[in-house]
Amino acid sequence: PDLHAFSALVDAAAKAGDLAAAERSFERAVDAGVEPDVVLFSSMVHAAARASNPSAAEHWLHRLEAAGLKPAPATLSAVASAAARAGDTGAALRWAERAKQEVGLDLVARNSLIDIQAKAGDIQSASQVLEELLAAGLEPDERTFGPLINACAEQGDLEGALSWFRRMVETHNLKPSIIQYNQLLK
Question: What pLDDT sits at residue 128?
């Protein structure tokens, strides 16, 4: 097998959320004399992010950089997302800042930041990330608004929850899912 075959194996394991299988495929590639490229390393970072394992995501990013490669924008965003998914606000913010400085943040990373800040009850910071998302020209999705609706509802702020819901539906023409309706009922 060549680099492309191993990349496909690692990517498939990453998409399945199987970090261990991705790591085994990566190491088999190295053992077979394949020199990993930025795509292969990035797939490992994404595998760790999907597994909500920020330390593994950082490990693979460091290996990518140690190989003299430059991470793609989505790769740095994946490290920030991994930390956010794991509930590590500090690390998520640090990685997001690095990604923002070096390559910019994508929608997934910004949605993860909104989610972790909203879960921490910091609606103001979460809404600031949303405003930065819009200023960057990104289009929000229902995952952008859900954490804000939920945080307001959990704090007993029905007006705030309804305001975010209306903004999602009326301003951004997004179709709410059963999740957003349930969030309003809290």
Answer: 94
